[in-house]
Amino acid sequence: MNESLAMARVCCMSTRRTLCTRIRPPGLAALALGLLSACTQAPIAGPSAEAATPAAAAAPVHLRLIAFNDFHGHLEAGSLSLAQADPAQPGATLRVPVGGAAALAGLVRTLREQAPGGAAHSLLLASGDQIGAAPLVSALFRHESTIEVLNALGVDVATVGNHEFDAGQAELKRVLGGGCAPNRADAATQSCALRTHAGARFPSIVANVDGADGQPLYAPSWVREFGGVRVGFIGAVTRSTPGIVVPSAVAGLRFGDEAQAINRAAQALQAEGVQALVALIHEGGEIGSAQQPGDWNDESCPELRGSIVDIARRVTPAVDVLFTAHTHQGYRCVIDGRPVVQATSYGRGVSVVDLVLDARSGDVDRTQVRSRNLPVFNASTPAAARAALAAAHPAPYAQALQAARPDAEVARLVA
């Protein structure tokens, strides 16, 4: 039976937000009990408390969010590496080869397959600087090669970073939207080298950038539904972008305050009944020090600093998770009771946040949120180091790290 039939919408106020849910009227349960009673000649009984309020017994909805940031067109692993806490020597680090689009795709696929709610209850997010300041394998093809690989990775939604604006807003819209750019005879780069550029198959969301006409450059948010619960995603890019790229690249654009823009978008989503909210912010921070680097899975986040601290504290409590970027750091912090995470850069790591959605309220059950930063092991990662580092992670993330293998189709695209 279609769950949207014979349902009523109920809203209440809480100290944190307006909560809305949909419940089935108890008349259906009472009718079923009556029919059974007539068959057995037993006295008709009123509906039980469970039958009268079926929404109270609604199963929770699981959602796994997998995110990477500051990819910068690093399609090939090359000499990419990552320092991890050495399980065999407390206080020491172990640097291992990681990264590459094929390895990233393989880990993402495994994490999706092993998601608590199944692959259909997982999303892949990108938090900006997917392109720009990139190796030749991306830059020579005007980053069309990277967009093609991101499509193959299965990116579901992304925000943009400051480097997406490096070549100007018109070129950014072409790279994301598809189509070929003119190729000058003396140019080192080439557009549509092998085929017509199809553009991104995923939406880009940015809440804090307006065009010269005062209209948003991109949609501020995006919504997906899982098990009857709608989840809203809001994007924002660092407002310092005009001071980072050449002025002509952002001429006429207005970059607003990140937190204020996210809060406006969150309010609009809540007005539509969307209570589970996630922010993708291309701005970040860092932890630790040069003398004592921070562990990217240490939730105490020693010496956390940077622009993201103020932004996170000003973002409405309605937002449940903040995926961050820009500083190329790894951290897994908790600010005001919600995860604030970043997974280094260049596809060397991913942040995984497992949510449990309350089917009654449509909101995130924050008591059940789990998160973890994971390295993207590749074919060059020594087997012994891989096994030891994977075992240091809790289940189920350790199993994913052990099982993941490079994706052959993505490897073919990169080659």
Describe the structure.
With 415 residues, this protein is of the alpha/beta class. It contains eleven helices and 17 strands. The strands form five sheets. A six-stranded mixed sheet has the order 9-10-12-13-15-14, with helices on one face. Helix 3 packs antiparallel against helix 11, helix 5 packs antiparallel against helix 11 and helix 9 packs antiparallel against helix 10. The longest helix is centred in the N-terminal third of the chain and has 14 residues. It starts with 7 loop residues before the first strand and ends with a helix. The N terminus is likely disordered.
Number of helices: 11
Strand order of the biggest β-sheet: 9-10-12-13-15-14
H-E order: EEHHEEEHEHHEHEEEEHEHEEEEEHHH
The N- and C-terminal alpha carbons lie at a distance of 48 Å
Which stretches are poorly predicted, pLDDT < 50 over at least 5 residues?
A: 1-53
Mean pLDDT: 89
> Which overall shape is indicated by the principal axes computed on the Cα atoms?
globular
Return the structural class: alpha/beta
Number of DSSP E strands: 17
Query: Strand count, sense and closure of the main sheet?
Result: 6 strands, mixed
Gyration radius, to the nearest Å? 24 Å
* Strand percent estimate: 15-25%
Which range best describes the helical content: under 10%, 10-25%, 25-40%, 40-55%, 55-70% or over 70%? 10-25%
Name the descriptors:
415 residues; 5-stranded mixed sheet; 11 helices; disordered N terminus
Layout of SSEs?
Layout: E1 8-13, E2 18-23, H1 27-40, H2 49-52, E3 61-68, E4 81-85, E5 93-97, H3 101-113, E6 122-126, H4 136-139, H5 144-153, E7 157-158, H6 169-177, E8 209-210, E9 221-226, E10 229-237, E11 254-255, H7 258-271, E12 276-282, H8 307-314, E13 321-323, E14 330-335, E15 338-343, E16 349-357, E17 370-375, H9 383-391, H10 397-403, H11 408-414
